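Quick illustration, no need to memorize.
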Amino acid sequence: MLTKRIIPCLDIKNGRTVKGINFESLRDAGDPVELAEYYSESGADELVFLDITATEERRDTLVELVKSIAEKINIPFTVGGGISKISDVERLLRTGADKISVNSAAVKDPDLINRLSAKFGSQCIVVAIDAKKTEGIWKIHLAGGKIPTEIELFSWAREVEERGAGEILFTSMDHDGTKNGFANEALAKMSEMLTIPVIASGGAGNVSHFTDTFLKGKADAALAASVFHYGEIDIIDLKKELLKNNIPVRI
């Protein structure tokens, strides 16, 4: 089994880290630069930065904030939010991002994945997918979960892999912020049908949820926010528990 990754996520609005439930009721979770530096020193394997209102507000990602964070950390850094063209990616990579995440723009223009992968390499391209179950069918949503589509989750996941994505970040909107566990059934199905890594997101509430998403959900990495931001779970303690369950992690 390959080493599993633990990834804190910084959801950014108005320059601050925020966290909500089911993509709603956002509350402040701290200064993103301070949090990023803390996670870099506290055992996180990677860090994800999502400018959650960039697409909705039709503006570019917060480049200066990305630069400030990149200067403070020494772990792989993925940046997403408002990315829709090659020049966006070039600017963010120059600023300090290691990987970029695309979501809404890729759905609106699927060939964007092909172009970015060809230009920067698939290892640099993460496709984020936000989805919720509607009448028994997982359907993807855009613009920070605000715009529903009729696109089915698994067919889109297969397509983004075929178009050159190096990784998928799947967030269950139904589980987000609930602390009731990850969407392991959907994760397992996705992991089994794809060859690229799948990052689980949405629902972490305790250590057993991470164990479950690696063993039952077959996820390659687990992303979480509030349980880390508010000190409910210590990353090193989490990794020690995962090792007890024969889940390989880096300490």
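The chain has a mean pLDDT of 91.
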